[in-house]
Amino acid sequence: MLKRVHFPSSPLPYLLVAPQLAITLVFFIWPASQAMYQSFLIEDAFGLGSEFVWFENFEALWADQHYLDAFLRTAVFSLLVAALSMGVALLLAGFAQRVVRGAMFYRTLLIWPYAVAPVLAGALWVFMFNPTLGIFPYFLDFFGIDWNHYLNGNQAMALVILAAAWKQVAYNFLFYLAAMQSIPNSVIEAAAIDGAGPGRRFFSIILPLISPTTFFLLVINMVYAFFETFGIIHAVTQGGPGSSTTILVYKVFNDGFVGLDLGGSAAQSVVLMVLVIAMTIVQFRYVERKVEY
Amino acid sequence: MVENRPLTAILTHFMLVLGVIAIALPIWITFVAATHDAARMTQVPLPLWPGTHLWDNLKQTLFGSGLSGTEGAPVWLMLFNSLAMAMMISLGKIAISLLSAFAIVYFRFPFRMTCFWMIFITLMLPVEVRILPTFEVVANLGMLNSYWGLSIPLIASATATFMFRQVFLTVPDEMLESARIDGAGPMRFFFDILLPLSRTNIAALFVILFIFGWNQYLWPLLITTDTSMTTIVMSIKQMLEAAEQSPQWNIIMTTALLAMIPPIFVVISMQKLFVQGLTETDK
Fold first, then answer.
1. Burial, A36: exposed, middle or buried (Cβ in 10 Å; 0-12, 13-18, 19+)?
2. ipTM, interface predicted TM-score of the complex
3. From CA B191, how far away is CA B193, in angstroms rounded?
4. Pick from B24, B41, B155: which is nearest to A109 by CB?
5. CA-based radius of gyration for chain B
6. Which fold has domain A60-286?
7. Is A127 near chain B, with CB under 8 Å?
């Protein structure tokens, strides 16, 4: 933590941390505590006064079927996004690490969706799947599938998941490729001498050895799907049709800025905060440790 | 490769090419849409091969009226806004994180660990979970519709601080001892020894943070109401809404292309730094 050799005490270090701490206090800790305080209040219909109601907002949340649905939907959404993007990335990385020359070439071609903003990713996919004009509905029509994500909730969900997973494949691919390249060659060669083919080596040696990376990526992908997919949903479906793609983050935004339900939105924020804290703790406590295999 | 299996090698390349095509397809379709005129973009099926109108579309998007029917800012101004925001966020984050990591690693002072934990907490409070109260703070400070409001609330960074702390911890103690013997004060040591030593880390972090800043969406959406402060990434959503009345997909997709070219260029041209930055900040 601290250097063995360090500078003598002086007011200087306070000046050095002052900018960071000032921003943290004003824009992070104060608003977060405000959110917590507001989650205990109910405003009257005209916004004139508010009443301190303890946990009533939270109780209302748990009694609200819409919120519970959103919770479940978020869980399904993030699991599917994580599974899809990690699966594709694992497959591609598994093939890419076999290529002796050209692995870096493929890497260059696979990593750049990382740079595309979520809302842009949403725009690209909504264009490709536009019910009247898009390329994919045109082809899907030949198979008798009538694509309209403005009307069909499941199709809307599928589209959002595809767009979110597409953007995240690049990130997962980079980490999987790095993990696979750090496996000592001698281990792979020993298995090959024992007669294990490429498929067997992948499942019996590579996959278990990179399980810490898988776990790390699972946490990162869940956080991504929870919080960073707001732009995708806002661009593609705006939570609809109905509320079939309203995930928790979108609901906080929608109830707070559109519905102006301050207490309820703040209570939702607090629930989200608890979730982030839990995920961060999991990430820091368990990721560095080895996963058993 | 361990053994020579021509069939497996062919399969490997085949799968990789398939993967590349699948990943690149959305971008390719965007590019194709940006090279056709408005009339062609309303006929089903849409083209899969580039047309000849890229130049016209670019001209109309950048300097012309842009999308007709919307009274937005010109696209070149949006690009400038995005660039200003991305630069302020990335340079701001790097500057304040360098300073606080320096203080935490090289000084012993009361409340040092308190400071450390306060910075750590920011990791657990993404914008999304505190949007309303943060918006109120920024509104009360009169920072709505300004570059300051766009960037300053986002520049506190626990990950950057941790990364620089990690880097500083690997600097040998002898560096500081010899610098002190030569009579260097703390700031002299910081600027003449620590900064040059962490040059590549700064560059790697800059690549990641530039992309992070450029791609901000929710925050600019909340705090800018003035069209002259619109960023390019935000404008896509407004255009999509307008597209429901008059689909001018060639212009929308040209704008989308312009919005993603700068970050993609940064990733491709500084790939090594990008990979380094990504793996260092998250581990």
1. middle
2. 0.85
3. 6
4. B24
5. 24
6. MetI-like fold (1.10.3720)
7. yes
| Residue A16 near residue B119, CB atoms below 8 Å | no
Residue A52's H or E segment, with its range, is strand A50-52
- Contact partners, residue A289, CB within 8 Å, separation at least 6: none
Write the CB contacts of B65 (distance below 8 Å, at least 6 apart in sequence): none
Chain B residue numbers touching A265 (CB-CB < 8 A):
132
d(CA B194, CA B198): 6
Element (H, E) at A271: helix A262-286
Of B129, B132, B130, the residue nearest A261 (C-alpha): B132
| Residue among B196, B219, B203, B171 at smallest CA distance from B94 | B203
Tokens of A252: 């906080």
CA torsion A220-A221-A224-A229 (nearest 10°) is 180
Determine the Cα–Cα distance for residues B34 and B32; give it in Å rounded to an integer: 5
Which residue type sits at B109? Answer: F
Mutation to test the B interface, candidates A92, A105, A116, most B Cβ within 10 Å? A116
Q: Which of B129, B249, B250 to mutate to test the interface with A (most CBs of A within 10 A)?
A: B129
What does residue A115 show for φ and ψ, rounded to 5 degrees?
Answer: -80, -10
Residues of B in contact with A285 (CB under 8 A): none
Give yes or no for A17 touching B (CB within 8 A). yes
Taking the C-alpha atoms of B217, B222, B223 and B226 in order, what is their torsion angle to the nearest 10 degrees? 90
User: What is the full per-residue pLDDT of chain B (283 aa) written as tens digits?
Assistant: 567 777 888 888 888 889 889 888 888 888 888 888 777 777 777 777 887 777 777 777 777 655 554 556 788 888 899 999 999 999 999 999 999 999 988 888 888 888 888 888 887 777 777 777 888 888 888 888 888 888 888 888 888 888 898 888 888 888 888 888 888 888 888 999 899 999 888 998 999 899 999 998 888 888 888 878 888 888 888 888 777 776 678 888 888 888 889 999 988 888 888 888 887 765 4
What distance in Å separates the CA atoms of residue A242 and residue A238, rounded to the nearest whole number? Answer: 10
CB contact under 8 A, A117 and B118: no
Domains and CATH numbers, chain B: 72-282 (1.10.3720.10)
Which residues have a Cβ under 8 Å from the Cβ of A9 and sit 6 or more positions away?
B107, B108, B109
| Nearest-5° Cα angle at A122, A119 to A127 | 130
